[in-house]
């Protein structure tokens, strides 16, 4: 199917009050005023990029994949039908909540709800950052990336990601057999979704967002430390995807990677899959005291969502 981008995600959190300060003041996102109980966060002219709803746990509720237009959306549903995968077409209320023309959703073998949609509402030149900020890299490239933990890489999951969603392989970040990164075929980002394979564990491992200006990474790096959000990894530059980034914990207890300097993995800039010997050129020193991400759970535990 012709997915073009990871356009939005939905989270459930016990900590909306803190999110409502952290997202604009630390990350530079815009809070969208509205009547519902969700906290809607904007990063560009789109309706929203992250929706956080009050709940009893910290978890990723869904990921939203953008189809280019109505015919691409209808093609996507035909592919699900041909695969024998059951899905639900969203009603008017759900479309209004997401701010889209049409949406359908299904649970993936990765234990995450995948939403397929087209036509996300936008308002040109309407983005006002929550703090002085030079803007996010989003638009048609989507909002960033998510990395999910899965207990194993099954044939079913491989088929879902590579054949049903039709994603293009990017690499394994130097951790062959333990990590897998993918992107929609026509997306300029190197990856929009990644999988970290940890036996017995599932859930959200981290979220990555990208900014235009390196100084905004520096400002955010100062702010998370001043406000006491623990680092998972210090500022550094990755090897396979040579961005500068740091990882710190959000009010939901998962690490957020704050990134600048993404390269484009496109036909014009074909990315050769090397085998990096290290995760990073410099930095990304892991904090030995970092907590386990609250959005990851042991499948055997009582906390595992049903
Ligand atoms: Fe990342």
Automatic annotation (TrEMBL):
GO MF annotations, alphabetized: dioxygenase activity; ferrous iron binding
Residue ranges occupied by any VOC domain in the UniProt entry: 5-119, 142-261
Superkingdom classification of source: Bacteria
Keyword Repressor: no
Protein name: 2,3-dihydroxybiphenyl 1,2-dioxygenase
Pfam family name, one: Glyoxalase
Family: Belongs to the extradiol ring-cleavage dioxygenase family.
Cofactor: Fe(2+)
UniProtKB keywords: Aromatic hydrocarbons catabolism, Dioxygenase, Iron, Metal-binding, Oxidoreductase
Lineage start: Bacteria, Bacillati, Actinomycetota, Actinomycetes, Micrococcales
Species in which this protein is naturally found: Janibacter limosus
PROSITE patterns, per the entry: EXTRADIOL_DIOXYGENAS, VOC
